[in-house]
Each structure stands twice: as structure tokens, then as C-alpha cells.
């Protein structure tokens, strides 16, 4: 297998991806020069948008890639194309998704511009100064216009065929925050934000939230009060507040249970006793069969029972 | 109906009581007599009456084997049915009561099938040999009586056989003569004849008696060893005869019969056919013990009562004057001689028992196995209570022993009932104070005395337990008591612990072991063989008295006397013999520094106390005004108080030279723990938490009042490896804070999280205002998942105590559950909600409950804290900490304490740890759930156990390949069982854990006392595909040394500044978690946390060469294979490792690749 790898007949295409080898310099802790493979093609999502034409899709993005890295790659090696923005598959590692709440206070990085600004209030501060990405992840690179995207793809192909050497992160240098311990330390610092700042953020959020709530209650109240065009009144939630009502319901439930208990006991009639006995006998036999099965299994598993 | 139940309960208690309860025996007997079946449904639900047609009555499976009803004669699961009632038969279903449970019964059946003696090849060989030997003996000619001197030299010259005289040797001038005459009979006795020998024994052992003719003996020969001299000569003659006849076939050696130096026997083993094999290497397949004995009527049995003296002072010619002083009685000598007279009589008795009681043989086999697993045996060194004593005791109890001469056991008992009732007797009745007299016509003529136990067989007037010492008897009782408790534990299937596991390894059994040379404690007075039992009595007394309540149990284990050649007089070299003393301590008192003696006014006692302790005793006045004799021990000498006492006592009582040979071991393994294993180490932390709680509750101006503040952290349950107050940098301990309910909380998850932040902000403000001496700041977590908890409050006191507060709001659960029910939820969102719900339950409900329960258990068992910490260290040392939650480790360790069987709960960290490893090695996590009752008070009812087990089975059905749940660990506070394990460990990890534990167990069992504890904590890194070596400073251990250096890099300075703002900074953990998130699908990482600063990795086999697709979630290299159309993808290992190096920066020192 290693023979196959080393003989390395340059692979240019995988499916419709251009295989772009990127060299990464050796480091003291791992003194080996390595090659990383980027898979590049024009972006082709199932539902194209107006921007799709000027986008390039990259698979197998290095975990430490940043927008700066990608920009530098396109600028230095892929025809000097200018990149407008980069959207990584997982904006943040391990964060999964957020839950759509009523007004979608979901944070979207590089999201569509038409998203209403006022809903972005009350965000909590960032805790990382540099994100990393899942291994084997993807990114969509949006170039300034369609021709530049095409140039970039053409250049990528050419780079592969000519065997042009591409170095990852060349010229990025100090433009991005460092990795390693410094990054963790920065994270530690960011994690404990200033209390005043935090207070403001929470206040702004709560303000917006109560405004929404108020609006919603108004809406519901209106629905409750006014019949629609067919003359029906919508039944809606509201009125009394949730938790208090729930506690009451629980109490009611307990009460009912208690009353149930005080009714006819289950050993009142003769047939009840008889049936109970029968059940017990059945249970016993079932238990025995169960045990037999267990012992049988044990024998299969451990072989013979012998004192150690 | 109520009365028997009450009675039964009483009996139940007895089993755990020190005191014996005569009443229980009374009820025992009388129940038997009347044979009335109890109608009561058993209190604990083990037994249920089933309908009458089935014909079982509720007989107790719990307190004691109770009696079977009259109605059931014949229908009971009688042992004669056992063979027929193999698997498949219905009989077992009705075994409730006669056995612990049908599961137990089925297992016992299986065991009996396995150990039942069988007629095999070695049996045939042995029996052929028996015939040959018998023939030879029958043909041997008699020898004329000759004086001692002549026979000895004569025999040696003629056939090179030494006469194995006991010590003291016969005086040359003795006027009695020794002779050999044709034996009256030869017979096979013992377990082989009775078919009660266990097949699991390594070699087949057959006892053959040669009855010496009565004509050889005179009336007074029982005196002064004369019988034993004649016996020795007789034996030598037999040896000579056999040697001349069978020198080629058999090997003949002398051996002390059951370690009794008065009675040597000939051991006959086959000569190995292949000369190349040495005899020692391959154990012979069979051995025949040739035992000379005499008929029952040879001597008057009255002369051999235990209170008689049969060894008279021979220097003064006092033979004619019977000594008036019974203090000089020679019970061992008498009984030893008496035992020789009763050989055949006992054989008959046992045979009779086997005939009348169907399950007798099985009970003997079970008893034998039980004893064998506990290292108990008939030999003196093994305690003097073995298979023979067991069989004889059961046989006698079937005949009598109860009040009014009624029998204690019934013929109709099942084998399990026989076993349990006999154990009950051994456990509850102190036979040293209240001897058991069976079938004695004239009643209790046998008084208790000198601390040795007595079971007096009235018919044969013989003490069955004559070979037992006070300590071996105590050991037997302890074992019986433990086993009974175990059998009464309805949550535990005691079968394995009772019959399968070996219990006699010193490291599992004893907290400390002292090794001495045997000769050093022998003061010479006991050189005579008939005093064999007394030789260690002084040692026992001294240690017992000196250590007092510090030890629970003290066991003296002499070395076994080996067999010796028939042509040498060397009776097992006594000089080099080693002696072991095993001790089980009381963890509360073992290292107490002050011992109080009697008050100064009690002159006599005070003098005795001073005499015992010598210079160490001093008179002290105490706060309460009393003036007491006192012994005070130092704590600063480097030796534990326990060791100081032992050394002092040995030196004072047995001289200086003993100290050179003595080694005191125990507790070495705890040296691996930082700051030792004392349970008191966490006291300041717990105090700190209390203070914190008071401070918080004292705050004024909180918007809502506080309902509960609960601890939810290993540090607050005595279970963190690092001792919080001694750590270099405090790690905040998790606290859960719950406010009183309010209707003003928003009804939206995200808003709830923000409201929590607002609460925390308010709280921090109040704390800073009210308490000057601390810092409080809010940290963020779970960024990106807004429905999860977003923030916590770190409060760090200047004293170093640090806490991390999270707010618990119970509305969250309802909201999350409601979301889950929403069918329209996107799958990805659903995952988050599921995660949120799991986290909610874990962090706010299970963790506080677990913490409280575990802390409680720690205060009950002082050794638990150390055991848990050591076990965590073990997991960390083997790089398993990131896969196995701390709580699971805690449950594993707690199990050793709440289900300690077959031992009692460990009283030291060392035994706790070793036993835990032992169990871990045996734990079949695929099929067995781990269920622990942390309450230790029986909070976990059998019904709950059952439901937990059902949950476990459901999980296994749902996820048979164990992708999600590998370990199932439940407790009384967490019946779900997957809280800590869901999705955390993989089968690979679990398998590795088992393998490591097995290796550790093998090491412990092989090395025994020579074990090097550090070896248990190291495993090679070469097992992994690659190893990332991290900056060792990150472990937080070597910071002090580093401080002196001038940092070479700016960023290294960061952690030199170690103020409060760095609390919670843990790049090691952050880095490990990040790696798992980035490469989780390609690499399995192994981390040891702060204990071992390396991260090891295994490539996931799923990263093997496969067709290239877009959704491979790891870095790949495209590969074109000649025979495949499609492009293949190969994991790009080098690139990934290089990425790890880049990501880690200075954190990563070096990456080592073991395999490509």
C-alpha cells in the first residue's frame, strides 16, 4: 500500500473534484513534512442561490483554516483571485445547532445580509479568538465575481498538472491569532467576560424578549377576543401563568391517586386472592425458567463451573 | 402467623451478631420436632407460597433453613432427585426455600456435577496400587519385640529406613519394647471411601488405615508417648516392607499426618515413569496416605479426656503418681491419640449419615469446596478444620446436638440447608465458651477452657475440633459469618463468592501481613511435639493484647511441614520456617495515638499494664480529671502507629534479633497517592463547602429565596485524586443552586438561560459586597447551544476554596420534554434537545444525589475514599480517564464496600483496591450490570433491582453491539444506569480495561506479598498507534520546580502568574476535548488527565481504505488502485498528526508514531 502511495502517479481528479496537494512544513514536535489534499470544485448545492455561480466548494479543509488562510491561498496560488467571504461548514466545532426560538435568535456567521439586524441583540460574548474545524470538513468560498471563481478553479487544475508547490499558511503569519497554549489562554480570558458587559447583553436580550412576549400575548389576546371571518374564536394559551397552574394540576392528580387507593382493596374479593395466588405461581415458574435460561447462558459463556 | 415471623426475624439478626442465641437453637429443634409448616409468607419476599397443588410451604430461605412441612414428604427437591432433575425438569421451580433461589440451586447442581468423584483413569491406577499395598502388608512377617536402641539401628541397617519418632525421642533406657505384628485389618477410609472427595482437587488423595493389633499394646501405653513410639516403629516397619516390595513403582515419604508431629504417616505416590521429569515439577496424580491406627477399645477412653494429663514429668520418676494438678492437662496429646482409636468408628458414622440423609454427600462436597476456597483444612497449619471435620460435624448434627438431645439437622434438609445450618451453628455459637455436646449420656461434663473450641462427641468421647487454635477458630467463625450474611443478601447471587472464588490470598484478605522466622518466636518451652498447638499462643496473646481493638482479626499462619524421605531423620527443617501473621484492622482505631490503660488506683491492673508495656507506659492526667496509665505513640516517625506497636511488642517480648527478620507489610500501594490516603484529607474541603453554604444563605437582597444548595463534585465526596486543599491551583467544585419556584421565570429555554445569568450577576454582586475575602466572576460555557446552560459563577475564597455555581430551574425539563414530543423538530435540533435533557438530568438531579450518597458512604467506610482515589489513579495511569466517568469509577469502588462478598467490607485502602481490581478483572460487563446500593442500608429493594436489571436487558436488546451503552452502572439514586456511561466508552476501551485488570489480578496473585505496587500502575505506550507527548508542566505536578527557571518564551510566563484569574484554566483538558471533537470519527484518543501527560491514539478501523465519497469525516489521501474502478480514500495520517502538532503548539512536545 505504501508503495502505491510513494510511487504517486499524480491524481488530478476525484469524481469532479480537483485534488490540490498542499504542502505543510515540518514542525519541531512532528518533524515530518506532510501533504494535505484539498478537493476543489465549483459549488453546486441542490438548491442554487444567486451567489452559487461565484462560489468555490472545498472539501477536506485543514482544521486550522481561517478566512485569512483561504484568502491567502487564492491570492497567492490560485490566480490572485479576491475572495469576498468564506463560510465553513461548522461555524463552530461541537456546537451543533441552535434551537429556533420564536424569533430565531440564532447566530449565523456570514449569514444573508437581509437578515434583520434588530434580532441580533443580546448576544453573549465570543469565547474563542480563533475557531478550528472538524477534520475533513468543507467550506464554501465566495469570490468577488463569477470569472474570478472560474479562474481560481482553472488555476487549481493547472497547479496540479504542473506540480506547482503550494504551501499552506504561507504569508499568513501573524495575521491570525496563534494556536497552542496562547489560544487556550485567550479562550480562558474570553470565557470570563466583564460583568458590566455581560449585564448589558443580558438586559438587552431580556428587553427584546419581553417586547416579543408582550407582542405575542397581545396577539393571542386579540385572537381570543375576536372571532375570525368564519365566526370562530381561536382557543389559545394564556390567561394564568404556566408553572403555577401546573403545580395545581399535579396536586389534583395526587389527590385523585390517593382517593383511588382508598377504594376497594385488591384482596377484598375471593377471586382477587385466588387470582393473585395464581399470578404468583406463574411468576414463580417464569422466574425459574428465566433462571434456567440464565444458567444455560452462563454455561455457554464460561464453560464449566469449577472452583478456582 | 405472626409469631413465627417474629421469631424468624430474630434469628436473622443472630446471624450478624457476635452473641450466640440459645433460643434460636431451641426453636430450631422444636420446629423440627413438630414438623409444622409455616404458613407465613416470608417477610422479605424471597419465598412465596404457591398454590397448594404445587406443594411447597413457605420455608425460610433467609434466616436459616427451616423445616419442611409434613405434607411435602417426598415432594421436596430431594437430592436424590438432583441428578434426575437436571436442567429442564420442573422440580427446581419448587426449590424456593430449600435453596436460596432457583438460580442458586441450578448453579449448585452444576457445580456438584463437576466436582462429584468419578471413576477415571487415575482412580483406577490408585486403586490398583491400593490392592498391591494391601497384599504386601498382608504378607509381611511380624517382628519380635526389641528394645528401642536395637530396633532403630537394626532397621536402618537392614533397609535404610529411619524410625520417625516424635520429639522427645524415647529414652534409650526405656524399658518398653517395640514390635511389629500383622495388622488386625487394613481399610480405606476418608472421603474417597465415602465418595465425598472433590474432583477439583489437583491430586486424588486416599487415606488407608492399618489397624495395629491390640495385642501389641499394654494398658498404660497411652502415657508418655509410648503409644506414639510403638506407632512410629510400626510405621517404619511398614515403610521397610513396602520399600523392599515396591521400590520401583512407588515413592515412599514420611509426612506428619495433618501436620500433627506426633503422628507421622507414609505417603505413597507413583514414581514418575519418565526420569527426565523431576518429581517436584509435576504433581503426582494420586497419593495414598498409609495411617497406622488402633481399634477403639485399646485404651480406656476416660484416660484421654481433655482435662487429663498423659505426659508426666519423666525426670522425676512420677509415673505412678497421678498428677492432681489438672492445669497440666494435655488435651492435644490426648485427642490426637484418641483420634487414632476412632478412625474406623468415624468412617462408620459418616457412612451411616450418607445412608440416612440423601443430601449428606452433597453437603459434604459443598462444605469441602467452601472450606477449600477459604484455605481452611484439616491440617494444623490450615486451621485444623477441614473436610473430615466438616463431614463429621454434619453427621453428628444429624444425630443430635440440639436441646434435649434432639438433632439440629434433619435428614430431609437439602444440601444447601445442611450447609447453611452448619454455617449458622459455626457462626453464632461461640464453641470456646459454650462447647457443643452431642449425644452425651451424662450431659455437659465438658467444660469450656483455655480458649479453644470444643465439639464434644459424647458417644466416642472425643473433641472434634482438637486441632483448632483460638485464632483459627476465630477465622472459621468469621468466614462462616461472612458467608451467612452473603447468603442472606437477597440482592446478591452468592454462588460464585461461596464456592468458586478463592478467598485465601493474603493481599485480598489481610490489611497487614507480618513475616517472621518461626524459630524467633519459639521460646523453647514448646519444643515438645505434644505442645504443637501452643507454640504460637504467646505470640498471639502478646499481639492481641497489645493491639487491642485496633485489629478485628489476627491470624497466625505457620508454614506447612513438608514430607521427608524415609531414610532421613530430618523432620521438615524447622529452623528456616517462616511464619506469617495476617491482620485485619479496624480502620477507625488502627492508628489511634493514645491507648488508655487502667486507672492508677487499680493497683493490680496498673502493674500488669506497666509490666506489659514496659517503658512505654506512663501515667497521665486527662481533662476529665482521671489519671490513667497510658501509652502514647508518635506520628512523626515515618512508621505508622500500627507498625510501631507491632515492632515494639515483638522486640520487647521476643528480643532484638526478631526485628531483623520481621517485615511488616501493608498499605504500600497507597504511597502512589498524592498526600496519602487518609479519609480526613477532605475534611477542610467539606468545611469550606459548609461555610460557603452559610455565606450564600446569609446573603440579603436576593430576588428569590434559596431552596437548596447541593454539592455535585468529586472533591465534595472525598473522591478526587488530588486533595483540593493541597493542590497547587484550586479547581472549582461544582455546586447546584436552586431557588424557590416563581411564576416570573420566562417560559422559554433561551430566555431561562439568560435569566440565570442575570441571577448569577446579582449573586456575584451580593457576594462581593458581603464577603470581602473572595473573588466572584461569571464564566460562559456551551457557547453556540443557547438552550443549554450558558453560564456559571466561580467563587474563589482567599483561603483557596473554589466553587462553581450553576442554577437549577426545574421548568427546563418540562420545556425540553415538550420539545422532544414535537414531531416537526429537525433531527439536528432534536439531538441538541436530547443532549440538553441528558445534561439536565445528569448535572442537576443525578450528580447532587450521587454526591450526597457517596459522601455518606465515605463516612461509613473510612477506606473508601482512598480506594476510590487509587482506582481513579489506576484508570488515569492506563490512559482511560477520558472514557470512563469518575462516577462510574466511584460506583465500581463502592461496590467492593457494599457488596464485599466473599469478604467483609475492606478495612484498609490496600485491600479495597486489590479486591476492586479483582472484581474488575472478573466483571463481565457485556452481560452483567453494575448495580450498587450506595445507601448501604438496604434502600435498594429486590423489586428495584429487578427493574434495573430489566432496564439493562432492554438496553442490550436495543443496542446489542453496544455502540451507545457499553457499561451499565446504576445505583439506588440513579436507576437509569446510563447517566454516566451513555455514549462515553466504547467496547475497545472496556475490553482494554478488562485486560488491564486481568493482568493486574494475575500479577497480584502470582507475586502475592512480593508484589511491587507501582507495577500495577504502568502500562506500555507501545500498544497505541501513536502517542502525543505533552508538556509535562500541564499536569500541574512539577510547577514548583519550573518556577525557578527563567521562562524562555513569553507565553510560558502565562502560568507562572498563578493568581485567582487562572483558576479554571486547564489547557490539557481543553486540548484533549478539542482533539476528540475534531478527530472523533477517525481516532480513538486515550488520556490520563493530569496524572499522565500524554495522549495516545488508535486509528479507527473504519478509516481503512474505502471508496472516496464526499462525506468522509477525516482528512484523506486519494489512492488509485489498479484493480478498482473507483478512486479510493486513505486516511492521511501524517497530515492529521501534523495538524495535531500545529494545533497544540507548545503544548505538544513530541509525537511518537508506533505503527503506520
TrEMBL record, chain A:
<dbReference type="InterPro" id="IPR040446">
    <property type="entry name" value="RRP7"/>
</dbReference>
<dbReference type="InterPro" id="IPR012677">
    <property type="entry name" value="Nucleotide-bd_a/b_plait_sf"/>
</dbReference>
<dbReference type="Pfam" id="PF12923">
    <property type="entry name" value="RRP7"/>
</dbReference>
<dbReference type="InterPro" id="IPR035979">
    <property type="entry name" value="RBD_domain_sf"/>
</dbReference>
<dbReference type="GO" id="GO:0034456">
    <property type="term" value="C:UTP-C complex"/>
</dbReference>
<comment type="similarity">
    <text>Belongs to the RRP7 family.</text>
</comment>
<dbReference type="InterPro" id="IPR024326">
    <property type="entry name" value="RRP7_C"/>
</dbReference>
<feature type="domain" description="Rrp7 RRM-like N-terminal">
    <location>
        <begin position="17"/>
        <end position="183"/>
    </location>
</feature>
<feature type="domain" description="Ribosomal RNA-processing protein 7 C-terminal">
    <location>
        <begin position="190"/>
        <end position="307"/>
    </location>
</feature>
<feature type="coiled-coil region">
    <location>
        <begin position="244"/>
        <end position="298"/>
    </location>
</feature>
<feature type="region of interest" description="Disordered">
    <location>
        <begin position="96"/>
        <end position="124"/>
    </location>
</feature>
<keyword id="KW-0175">Coiled coil</keyword>
<dbReference type="Pfam" id="PF17799">
    <property type="entry name" value="RRM_Rrp7"/>
</dbReference>
<dbReference type="GO" id="GO:0032545">
    <property type="term" value="C:CURI complex"/>
</dbReference>
<dbReference type="InterPro" id="IPR040447">
    <property type="entry name" value="RRM_Rrp7"/>
</dbReference>
<dbReference type="GO" id="GO:0000028">
    <property type="term" value="P:ribosomal small subunit assembly"/>
</dbReference>
<dbReference type="GO" id="GO:0006364">
    <property type="term" value="P:rRNA processing"/>
</dbReference>
<dbReference type="GO" id="GO:0003676">
    <property type="term" value="F:nucleic acid binding"/>
</dbReference>
<protein>
    <recommendedName>
        <fullName>Ribosomal RNA-processing protein 7</fullName>
    </recommendedName>
</protein>
TrEMBL record, chain B:
<dbReference type="Pfam" id="PF03813">
    <property type="entry name" value="Nrap"/>
</dbReference>
<keyword id="KW-0690">Ribosome biogenesis</keyword>
<dbReference type="Pfam" id="PF17406">
    <property type="entry name" value="Nrap_D5"/>
</dbReference>
<feature type="domain" description="Nrap protein">
    <location>
        <begin position="360"/>
        <end position="501"/>
    </location>
</feature>
<dbReference type="InterPro" id="IPR035368">
    <property type="entry name" value="Nrap_D3"/>
</dbReference>
<dbReference type="GO" id="GO:0006364">
    <property type="term" value="P:rRNA processing"/>
</dbReference>
<feature type="domain" description="Nrap protein">
    <location>
        <begin position="861"/>
        <end position="1018"/>
    </location>
</feature>
<dbReference type="GO" id="GO:0003723">
    <property type="term" value="F:RNA binding"/>
</dbReference>
<dbReference type="GO" id="GO:0006409">
    <property type="term" value="P:tRNA export from nucleus"/>
</dbReference>
<dbReference type="InterPro" id="IPR035082">
    <property type="entry name" value="Nrap_D1"/>
</dbReference>
<feature type="domain" description="Nrap protein">
    <location>
        <begin position="206"/>
        <end position="355"/>
    </location>
</feature>
<dbReference type="Pfam" id="PF17404">
    <property type="entry name" value="Nrap_D3"/>
</dbReference>
<protein>
    <recommendedName>
        <fullName>U3 small nucleolar RNA-associated protein 22</fullName>
    </recommendedName>
</protein>
<dbReference type="InterPro" id="IPR035367">
    <property type="entry name" value="Nrap_D2"/>
</dbReference>
<dbReference type="GO" id="GO:0032040">
    <property type="term" value="C:small-subunit processome"/>
</dbReference>
<dbReference type="Pfam" id="PF17407">
    <property type="entry name" value="Nrap_D6"/>
</dbReference>
<comment type="similarity">
    <text>Belongs to the NRAP family.</text>
</comment>
<feature type="compositionally biased region" description="Basic residues">
    <location>
        <begin position="1"/>
        <end position="11"/>
    </location>
</feature>
<dbReference type="InterPro" id="IPR035371">
    <property type="entry name" value="Nrap_D6"/>
</dbReference>
<dbReference type="InterPro" id="IPR035370">
    <property type="entry name" value="Nrap_D5"/>
</dbReference>
<feature type="region of interest" description="Disordered">
    <location>
        <begin position="1"/>
        <end position="94"/>
    </location>
</feature>
<keyword id="KW-0694">RNA-binding</keyword>
Amino acid at each position: 500500500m505504501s508503495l502505491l502511495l510513494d510511487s504517486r502517479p499524480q491524481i488530478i481528479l476525484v469524481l469532479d473534484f480537483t485534488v490540490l496537494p498542499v504542502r505543510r512544513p515540518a514542525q519541531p514536535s512532528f518533524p515530518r513534512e506532510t501533504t494535505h489534499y484539498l478537493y476543489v470544485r465549483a459549488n453546486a448545492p441542490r438548491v442554487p442561490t444567486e451567489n452559487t455561480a461565484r462560489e468555490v466548494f472545498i472539501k477536506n479543509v485543514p482544521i486550522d483554516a481561517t478566512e485569512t488562510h483561504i484568502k491567502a491561498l487564492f491570492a497567492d496560488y490560485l490566480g490572485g483571485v479576491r475572495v469576498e467571504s468564506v463560510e465553513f461548514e461548522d461555524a463552530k466545532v461541537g456546537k451543533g445547532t441552535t434551537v429556533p426560538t420564536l424569533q430565531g435568535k440564532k447566530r449565523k456567521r456570514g449569514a444573508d445580509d437581509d437578515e434583520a439586524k434588530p434580532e441580533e441583540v443580546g448576544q453573549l460574548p465570543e469565547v474563542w479568538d480563533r475557531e478550528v474545524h472538524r477534520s475533513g470538513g468543507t467550506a464554501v468560498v465566495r469570490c468577488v465575481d463569477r470569472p474570478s471563481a472560474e479562474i481560481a478553479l482553472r488555476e487549481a487544475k493547472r497547479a496540479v498538472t504542473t506540480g506547482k508547490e503550494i504551501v499552506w499558511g504561507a504569508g499568513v503569519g501573524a495575521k491570525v491569532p496563534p494556536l497552542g497554549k496562547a489560544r487556550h489562554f485567550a479562550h480562558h480570558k474570553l470565557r470570563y467576560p466583564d460583568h458590566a458587559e455581560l449585564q448589558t447583553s443580558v438586559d438587552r436580550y431580556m428587553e427584546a424578549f419581553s417586547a416579543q412576549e408582550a407582542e405575542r400575548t397581545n396577539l393571542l389576546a386579540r385572537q381570543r377576543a375576536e372571532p375570525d371571518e368564519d365566526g370562530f374564536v381561536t382557543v389559545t394559551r394564556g390567561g394564568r401563568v404556566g408553572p403555577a397552574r401546573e403545580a395545581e394540576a399535579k396536586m389534583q392528580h395526587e389527590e385523585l391517586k390517593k382517593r383511588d387507593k382508598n377504594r376497594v382493596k385488591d384482596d377484598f374479593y375471593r377471586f382477587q386472592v385466588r387470582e393473585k395466588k395464581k399470578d404468583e405461581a406463574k411468576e414463580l415458574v417464569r422466574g425459574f425458567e428465566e433462571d434456567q435460561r440464565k444458567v444455560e447462558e452462563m454455561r455457554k459463556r464460561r464453560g464449566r463451573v469449577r472452583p478456582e | 402467623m405472626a409469631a413465627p415471623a417474629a421469631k424468624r426475624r430474630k434469628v436473622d439478626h443472630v446471624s450478624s451478631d457476635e452473641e450466640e442465641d440459645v433460643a434460636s437453637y431451641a426453636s430450631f429443634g422444636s420446629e423440627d420436632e413438630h414438623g409444622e409448616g409455616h404458613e407465613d409468607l416470608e417477610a422479605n419476599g424471597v419465598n412465596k407460597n404457591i398454590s397448594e397443588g404445587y406443594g411447597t410451604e413457605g420455608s425460610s430461605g433467609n434466616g436459616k433453613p427451616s423445616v419442611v412441612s409434613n405434607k411435602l414428604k417426598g415432594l421436596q427437591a430431594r437430592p436424590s432427585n438432583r441428578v434426575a432433575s437436571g436442567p429442564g425438569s420442573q422440580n427446581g421451580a419448587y426449590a424456593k426455600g430449600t435453596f436460596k433461589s432457583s438460580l442458586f440451586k441450578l448453579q449448585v447442581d452444576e457445580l456438584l456435577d463437576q466436582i462429584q468423584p468419578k471413576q477415571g483413569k487415575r482412580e483406577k491406577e490408585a486403586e490398583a496400587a491400593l490392592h498391591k499395598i494391601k497384599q504386601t502388608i498382608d504378607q509381611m512377617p511380624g517382628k519380635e519385640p526389641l528394645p528401642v536402641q536395637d530396633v532403630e539401628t537394626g532397621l536402618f541397617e537392614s533397609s535404610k529406613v529411619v524410625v520417625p519418632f516424635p520429639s522427645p525421642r524415647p529414652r534409650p533406657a526405656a524399658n518398653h519394647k517395640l514390635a511389629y505384628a500383622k495388622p488386625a485389618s487394613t481399610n480405606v477410609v476418608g472421603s474417597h471411601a465415602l465418595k465425598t472427595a472433590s474432583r477439583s482437587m489437583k491430586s486424588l488423595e486416599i487415606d488407608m488405615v492399618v489397624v495395629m493389633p491390640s495385642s501389641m499394646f499394654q494398658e498404660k501405653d497411652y502415657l508418655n508417648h509410648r503409644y506414639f513410639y510403638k506407632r512410629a516403629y510400626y510405621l517404619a516397619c511398614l515403610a521397610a516392607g513396602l520399600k523392599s516390595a515396591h521400590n520401583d513403582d512407588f515413592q515412599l515419604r514420611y509426612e506428619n499426618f495433618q501436620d500433627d508431629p506426633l503422628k507421622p504417616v507414609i505417603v505413597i505416590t507413583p514414581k514418575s515413569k519418565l526420569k527426565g521429569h523431576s518429581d517436584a515439577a509435576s504433581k503426582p496424580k494420586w497419593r495414598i496416605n498409609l495411617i497406622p491406627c488402633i481399634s477403639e477399645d485399646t485404651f480406656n477412653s476416660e484416660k484421654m479426656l481433655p482435662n487429663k494429663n498423659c505426659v508426666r514429668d519423666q525426670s522425676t520418676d512420677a509415673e505412678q503418681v497421678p498428677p492432681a494438678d489438672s492445669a497440666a492437662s494435655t488435651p492435644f496429646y490426648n485427642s490426637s491419640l484418641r483420634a487414632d482409636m476412632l478412625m474406623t468408628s468415624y468412617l462408620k458414622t459418616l457412612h451411616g449419615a450418607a445412608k440416612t440423609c440423601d443430601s449428606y454427600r452433597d453437603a459434604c462436597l459443598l462444605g469441602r469446596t467452601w472450606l477449600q476456597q477459604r484455605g481452611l483444612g484439616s491440617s494444623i497449619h490450615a486451621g485444623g478444620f477441614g473436610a473430615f471435620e466438616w463431614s463429621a460435624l454434619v453427621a453428628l448434627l444429624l444425630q443430635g446436638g440440639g436441646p434435649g438431645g434432639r438433632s439440629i439437622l434433619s435428614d430431609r434438609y437439602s444440601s444447601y440447608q445442611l450447609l447453611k445450618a452448619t454455617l449458622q451453628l459455626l457462626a453464632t455459637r461461640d464453641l470456646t465458651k459454650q462447647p457443643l455436646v452431642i449425644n452425651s449420656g451424662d450431659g455437659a461434663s465438658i467444660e469450656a477452657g483455655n480458649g479453644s473450641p470444643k465439639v464434644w462427641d459424647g458417644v466416642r468421647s472425643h473433641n472434634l475440633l482438637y486441632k483448632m487454635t483460638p485464632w483459627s477458630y476465630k477465622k472459621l467463625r468469621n468466614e462462616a459469618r461472612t458467608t451467612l450474611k452473603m447468603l442472606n443478601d437477597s440482592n446478591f447471587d452468592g454462588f460464585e463468592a461461596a464456592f468458586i472464588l478463592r478467598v485465601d490470598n493474603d493481599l485480598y484478605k489481610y490489611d497487614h501481613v507480618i513475616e517472621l522466622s518461626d524459630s524467633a518466636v519459639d521460646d523453647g518451652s514448646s519444643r515438645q511435639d505434644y505442645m504443637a498447638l501452643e507454640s504460637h499462643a504467646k505470640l498471639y496473646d502478646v499481639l492481641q493484647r497489645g493491639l487491642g481493638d485496633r485489629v478485628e482479626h489476627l491470624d497466625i499462619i505457620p508454614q506447612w511441614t513438608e514430607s521427608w524421605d524415609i531414610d532421613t531423620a530430618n523432620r521438615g527443617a524447622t529452623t528456616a520456617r517462616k511464619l506469617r501473621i495476617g491482620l485485619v484492622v479496624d480502620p477507625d482505631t488502627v492508628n489511634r495515638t493514645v491507648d488508655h490503660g487502667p486507672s492508677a488506683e487499680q493497683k493490680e491492673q496498673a502493674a500488669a499494664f506497666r509490666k506489659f508495656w514496659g517503658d512505654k507506659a506512663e501515667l497521665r492526667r486527662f481533662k476529665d480529671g482521671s489519671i490513667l496509665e497510658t501509652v502514647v505513640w508518635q506520628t512523626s516517625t515515618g512508621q505508622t502507629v500500627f507498625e510501631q506497636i507491632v515492632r515494639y511488642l515483638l522486640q520487647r517480648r521476643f528480643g532484638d534479633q526478631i526485628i531483623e527478620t520481621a517485615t511488616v507489610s501493608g498499605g504500600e500501594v497507597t504511597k502512589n497517592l498524592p498526600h496519602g490516603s487518609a479519609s480526613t484529607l477532605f475534611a477542610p474541603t467539606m468545611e469550606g463547602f459548609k461555610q460557603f453554604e452559610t455565606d450564600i444563605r446569609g446573603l440579603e437582597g436576593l430576588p428569590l429565596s434559596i431552596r437548596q444548595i447541593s454539592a455535585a463534585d468529586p472533591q465534595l465526596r472525598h473522591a478526587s485524586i488530588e486533595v483540593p486543599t493541597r493542590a497547587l491551583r484550586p479547581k472549582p467544585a461544582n455546586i447546584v443552586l436552586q431557588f424557590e419556584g416563581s411564576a416570573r421565570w420566562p417560559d422559554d429555554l433561551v430566555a431561562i438561560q439568560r435569566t440565570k445569568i442575570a441571577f448569577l450577576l446579582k449573586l456575584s454582586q451580593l457576594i462581593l459586597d458581603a464577603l470581602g475575602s473572595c473573588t466572584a466572576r461569571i464564566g460562559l460555557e456551551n457557547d453556540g447551544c443557547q438552550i443549554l446552560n450558558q453560564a456559571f459563577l466561580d467563587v474563589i475564597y482567599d483561603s483557596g476554596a473554589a466553587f462553581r455555581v450553576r442554577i437549577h430551574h426545574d421548568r427546563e425539563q418540562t420545556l425540553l420534554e415538550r420539545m422532544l414530543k414535537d414531531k416537526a423538530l429537525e433531527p439536528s435540533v432534536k439531538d441538541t434537545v436530547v443532549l440538553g435533557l441528558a445534561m439536565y438530568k445528569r448535572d442537576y438531579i443525578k450528580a447532587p444525589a450521587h454526591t450526597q450518597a457517596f459522601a455518606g458512604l465515605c463516612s461509613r467506610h473510612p477506606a473508601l475514599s482512598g480506594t476510590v482515589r487509587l482506582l481513579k489513579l489506576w484508570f488515569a495511569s492506563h490512559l482511560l480517564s477520558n472514557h470512563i466517568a469518575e462516577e462510574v469509577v466511584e460506583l465500581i469502588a463502592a461496590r467492593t464496600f457494599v457488596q464485599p462478598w466473599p469478604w467483609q467490607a475492606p478495612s484498609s485502602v490496600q485491600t479495597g483496591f486489590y479486591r476492586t481490581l479483582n472484581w474488575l478483572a472478573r466483571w463481565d460487563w457485556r452481560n452483567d450490570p453494575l448495580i450498587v446500593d450506595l445507601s448501604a442500608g438496604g434502600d435498594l429493594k429486590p423489586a428495584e433491582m429487578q427493574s434495573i436489571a430489566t432496564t439493562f436487558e432492554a438496553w442490550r436488546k436495543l443496542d446489542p453491539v453496544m455502540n451507545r451503552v457499553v457499561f451499565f452502572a446504576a445505583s439506588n439514586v440513579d436507576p437509569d444506569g446510563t447517566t454516566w456511561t451513555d455514549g462515553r466508552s466504547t467496547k475497545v476501551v472496556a475490553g482494554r480495561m478488562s485486560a488491564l485488570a486481568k493482568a493486574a489480578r494475575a500479577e497480584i496473585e502470582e507475586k502475592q506479598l512480593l508484589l511491587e505496587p507501582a507495577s500495577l500502575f504502568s502500562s506500555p505506550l507501545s500498544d497505541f498507534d501513536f502517542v502525543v507527548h505533552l508538556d509535562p508542566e500541564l499536569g500541574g505536578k512539577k510547577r514548583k520546580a519550573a518556577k525557578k527557571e527563567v521562562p524562555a518564551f513569553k507565553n510560558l510566563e502565562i502560568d507562572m502568574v498563578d493568581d485567582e484569574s487562572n483558576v479554571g484554566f486547564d489547557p490539557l483538558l481543553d486540548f484533549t476535548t478539542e482533539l476528540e471533537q475534531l478527530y472523533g470519527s477517525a481516532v480513538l484518543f486515550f488520556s490520563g488527565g493530569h496524572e499522565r501527560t500524554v495522549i495516545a491514539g488508535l486509528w479507527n478501523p473504519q478509516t481503512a481504505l474505502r471508496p472516496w465519497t464526499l462525506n468522509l469525516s477525516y482528512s484523506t489521501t486519494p489512492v488509485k488502485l489498479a484493480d478498482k474502478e473507483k478512486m479510493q480514500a486513505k486516511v492521511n495520517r501524517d497530515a492529521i498528526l501534523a495538524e495535531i502538532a500545529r494545533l497544540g503548539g507548545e503544548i505538544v512536545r513530541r509525537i511518537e508514531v508506533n505503527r503506520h
